Amino acid sequence: MNLPPQIAQLLEKLKNMKMPFSRPKEVVGIDIGNYSVKIVQLKLTGDKWSLEKFGAAIAVNPDQAETTPIEKKQLAVEAIKKIINEQKITAKDAITSVSGSSVIVRYVKFPKLTQEQLSKTIQFEAEPFIPFPIQDVNISFQILGDVTEDGAQKMETILVAAKKEIIQNKMDILMEAGLKSVVIDVDSFALENAISVNASEQDLKNVYLVINIGVATTNISIIENGTSRVVRDVFIASSSFTKAIQRNLQIDWKQSEEKKLKFAILVTPEEKEKALSDGDDEVLQLSTILVAPARELVAECQRSIDFYQTQSTEEKKISKIYLCGGGGGQKGLDKYMESQIHIPVEIYNPFRKIAAADSSLPADVSMAGAPESDVSQFSQYAVAVGLATRKRGDVK
Question: What pTM value is reported for the model?
Answer without folding.
Answer: 0.88
